[in-house]
Amino acid sequence: MPYFLLASVLLAMLGGPGDSLASLSAMLTAYAIALPLATVSALLPLVRPLAVAGVRALGGVPVAGLAEGPARSWAERGRTSAWWTLHLGLGALVSGLSLAMPPMAGLLLAAPLLGRERRVELGMGWFADGSRLWTAPLAGLLILAVVVGCAAVAGALLARAVPVLLGPSTADRLAAAEERAADLAVRNRLARELHDAVGHALSAVTLQAVAARRVLDRDPEFVREALAAIEDTTRRTVGELDTVLGLLRDGDAARPDAAPAPTLGADLAGLLARTRATGAAVTAYQDPGPVGSWEALPAIVSREAYRIVQEGLSNALRHGAGGPVELHLAVREKEETRVLEIVMTNVPAAPGGGPAGRGGGGRGLRGAGERAALLGGSVEAGPDVGRWRLRAVLPLGGGGR
């Protein structure tokens, strides 16, 4: 209607046919002018979300494949413009038929009840003759059927045009795929953080409590150390859990009060001490090599390496047979690139290989592999000559992706 009214004003300014909108020629001319106006206005990017919202509200068509967001390219704008013009053009015709034809059909249906003079007065002179009067109701029914048929045909045509003109383009599908991939990456990252932080803490606290209970009467000093380790572990884990939940609530926005992520340089000694407080014998061999110290590692490598070591120790605590754990950390030169190599070995609980669930690569080992892959490195884990062995290689620069 806005396009039609604007076209009528332009027509009146140009001295078009007819003095009123009631003039059929004026209405048809205004309709012919309004369609190009609608076509041009639909080139605006925001018209597509409006058109998609209208299709969803009307229903009756599959809406799962509709494009999202404003039109980006001129090809998308052109398809949206074609839909807009087709929708409004057919809608105007169906609206006109729906307004004009039912009253006419009603008069024809009532014609047998009217006198001859009244039928002539209402413009139904052809039905004034009594021999033709019986055809008036049939004509009325035919007019109603034509109106309904036109509406149905127009609806079917528009429904078939929706996926072609308002469906997602290749660029839309690519943008949606990238958005889903980004969401999945965030979910995986949060899942890894929760698993590594909370899972390790629960394993360590459980074993520390068990070890303390067993020697409660014989070794009070060990019990005090175990309780102190439990306190330290739970305090650290609460801080890490708060940080992860903050990321879940606020996205990637950094919080000034968030606890810093643990790193190899700052937190490795504490991790080893808390692990030893469970009664496990952990021997660590450290060789920073050319970097000099773990504090000199790139921050992201240090964080991911800490989590990989943490996951390896968690597996050793959960699945180990109480045997010793050996941890080797070394920076090496490999093909003109410096890499951090992490090797951890321990005796598995089940003879002849890893325990149930370990060989299949649980969530923790899979998460460690994802962490390494993000840096361009790799993780290998599995039985090795009667022991369980985990080996990770992390490039220190130039290999991340």
UniProtKB/TrEMBL annotation:
<keyword id="KW-0472">Membrane</keyword>
<keyword id="KW-0812">Transmembrane</keyword>
<feature type="transmembrane region" description="Helical">
    <location>
        <begin position="134"/>
        <end position="159"/>
    </location>
</feature>
<dbReference type="InterPro" id="IPR011712">
    <property type="entry name" value="Sig_transdc_His_kin_sub3_dim/P"/>
</dbReference>
<dbReference type="Pfam" id="PF07730">
    <property type="entry name" value="HisKA_3"/>
</dbReference>
<feature type="transmembrane region" description="Helical">
    <location>
        <begin position="88"/>
        <end position="114"/>
    </location>
</feature>
<feature type="domain" description="Signal transduction histidine kinase subgroup 3 dimerisation and phosphoacceptor">
    <location>
        <begin position="187"/>
        <end position="251"/>
    </location>
</feature>
<dbReference type="InterPro" id="IPR050482">
    <property type="entry name" value="Sensor_HK_TwoCompSys"/>
</dbReference>
<keyword id="KW-0808">Transferase</keyword>
<keyword id="KW-0902">Two-component regulatory system</keyword>
<dbReference type="InterPro" id="IPR036890">
    <property type="entry name" value="HATPase_C_sf"/>
</dbReference>
<dbReference type="GO" id="GO:0016301">
    <property type="term" value="F:kinase activity"/>
</dbReference>
<keyword id="KW-0547">Nucleotide-binding</keyword>
<keyword id="KW-0418">Kinase</keyword>
<keyword id="KW-1133">Transmembrane helix</keyword>
<keyword id="KW-0597">Phosphoprotein</keyword>
<keyword id="KW-0067">ATP-binding</keyword>
<protein>
    <recommendedName>
        <fullName>histidine kinase</fullName>
        <ecNumber>2.7.13.3</ecNumber>
    </recommendedName>
</protein>
